[in-house]
Description:
Blueprint: H1 12-27, H2 33-47, E1 53-59, E2 63-71, E3 77-79, H3 83-91, E4 95-97, E5 115-123, E6 126-135, H4 143-156
Antiparallel strand pairs: 1-2, 1-6, 2-3, 4-5, 5-6
Amino acid sequence: MSFAFAPTAATADARWAETADAAAALVAGERDGIANMANVAALIWQAIPDLNWAGFYRFDGSELVLGPFQGKAACIRIPLDKGVCGAAARTRATQRVDDVHAFPGHIACDADSRSELVVPVIAGDRLVGVLDLDSPLPGRFSAADQAGAEALVGRIAGALSDGPSSLI
């Protein structure tokens, strides 16, 4: 199957809405969460400008484990008490960080990253993992980016976990 996506929106909120629609179409009917994470990471990488890493960390019941991504090689395991990803998973709340070097306990997997947006992936009431977006630009992620990423994850979270999805 081939999937073509050429985002056309000029604003962040419209671009995220287009990307969420494309992500929902891309994962529709597919039950493998890792395959869906891989395609969604690639889609975000293609659609959202100024990223140097886009992908998922999966929650294994005790820590975050590297999942499908686009970008440089990354940290494999992240404890919930470390870094921006750990904070998002631990608190189940999105973390939007304008300057990662000022974030206590930041894990520098890529020294070029300057800002980060991490959205917890929750299916039902179960933590599946986190969507992690990094940028080499300080302050790259706006409130519109946060709202858009949260809406995208909320819409497809069921397709990112194991087993049948309950999408749309």
